Amino acid sequence: MKIDDLLRKNNIRVTKNRKIILDKIIENNDPISAEEILEKFKKEKINMDLSTIYRNLNTLEEVNLLLKNTNTDGISYFQLNSTDHKHFISCISCGKKFIIENCPIHDIEKEIENETGFIIKGHSFEFTGICPECQKKLYK
Ligand SMILES: [Zn+2]
Ligand SMILES: [Zn+2]
Prior knowledge:
single chain; alpha+beta; Arc Repressor Mutant, subunit A; three-stranded antiparallel β-sheet; 6 helices; 6 strands; binds zinc ion
């Protein structure tokens, strides 16, 4: 779907900034933070400051176009709110983050809707654990 359509479908005004931010998020494939977007813009000589990026990300998240995951380190990662969105698993020992390719709880959402009468619009969670590398160090 074209980015313009994506914005219009969500009743949100198409602006140049929103378009290039969304473009980056789609291009990146994995969830991305505002700081990472800023880094990419710098490399491409796109002039946008961090607060502008944040403001637009939050607007896009409010209309449910983006999913926001705030991780235990306080950094928020944004991704397109699609059915194949991703979650994180982070290591409580070294702090490294890994991406889980498939959302494990789509089926559960239906059950929760039935149980609560809600129409669920999203969810956010993060798994925590100990990564294979740290297991080698900790449990040898
Ligand atoms: Zn680790
Ligand atoms: Zn999910």
